[in-house]
Design brief:
The protein has 252 residues and is α+β, with helices and mostly antiparallel strands. The chain has a single domain, classed as Deoxyribonuclease I, Chain A (4-Layer Sandwich), CATH 3.60.10.10. It is built from five helices and twelve strands. The strands form two sheets. Strands 3-4-2-1-12-11 form a six-stranded mixed beta sheet. Strands 5-6-7-8-10-9 form a six-stranded mixed beta sheet, with helices on one face. A hairpin with a 6-residue loop joins strand 5 and strand 6. Helix 2 packs across helix 3. It is globular and about 45 Å long. The two termini are 40 Å apart.
């Protein structure tokens, strides 16, 4: 009787452990896209066209750069809101500067509503920059559009490290970082983060890309990557950048 009891209990523990292992592996689709206000290579804004690029990739969350809110340039449109409406996703906006009667900045679209949101100012002498941090149930997703000036990009690193150091969830950072894979900036970032995107595939300019400027990366100490696939979408005219997407299976 005791032997039978222990055999049954062993089987239960084995199944429980197996189910636990299966549940621990998460699959997430991450995307980053500099959308240039929905303005295509033809110089005309078409939010439906931009939204279709996002919908094609079916991301759980997407970091977006170059977003007007109520500017004269965008004819009063809240560009992130227009994209949220067309994709059925939640919009989180972070203005970086006052511009043309409204705001200009970055944003995140997500299937889940963020649990917490904050933004941090980053240096940029040609224009102020910002970092948007969104917390979800299983992870943190961060959007950054870094400066055109190398000194300011490098000066952003300690701010980024400090802002992300206190999280106990996996952290992903994404955006248009205005620098190439062989740069000093990327070498520094790779000390703490694993680049998940395909850095061999250029993202800018969209029609004939010759430079990789757009990235998604995972904070190395907080995540165990089981499988990862990163690629660049062949969107040649919807913006001046092509979007990057990562499909990742991971555990904490």
């Amino acid at each position: 009787m005791k032997k039978k009891f222990w055999i049954e209990m062993t089987g239960i523990f084995f199944l429980a452990g197996l189910l636990s292992c299966q549940q621990d592996v998460k699959e997430t689709r991450l995307m980053s896209y500099n959308v240039k206000n929905g303005q295509g290579m033809n110089g005309f804004a078409d939010y439906g066209r931009t939204a279709n690029v996002i919908l094609k990739e079916k991301p759980d969350v997407v970091a977006l750069q170059e977003l007007d809110s109520a500017t004269m340039r965008s004819k009063g449109a809240y560009v992130l809101g227009e994209l949220a409406q067309r994709t059925g996703m939640h919009a989180t906006y972070a203005p970086a500067i006052d511009f043309d009667g409204g705001k200009y900045g970055i944003g995140i679209l997500s299937k889940e509503r963020p649990l917490n949101i904050c933004s941090k100012a980053l240096p940029g002498r040609e224009e102020a920059r910002t970092m948007l941090i969104t917390e979800f149930k299983d992870y943190i997703y961060v959007c950054m559009h870094l400066s055109l000036t190398e000194e300011d990009r490098m000066a952003s690193l300690p701010i980024i490290r400090e802002a992300l150091s206190g999280f106990h969830k996996p952290v992903f950072i994404a955006g248009d970082w205005n620098d190439t894979p062989e740069s000093a900036l990327l070498q520094e970032i790779e000390k703490d983060f694993t680049i998940l995107t395909d850095t061999a595939s250029p993202t800018y300019p969209a029609d004939q890309p010759d430079s990789t400027l757009d990235y998604i990366a995972a904070y190395r100490p907080s995540i165990h990557i089981k499988e990862s696939k990163g690629y660049v979408t062949e969107a040649t005219s919807e913006s001046d950048h092509r979007p990057v997407t990562v499909v990742i299976k991971w555990t904490e």
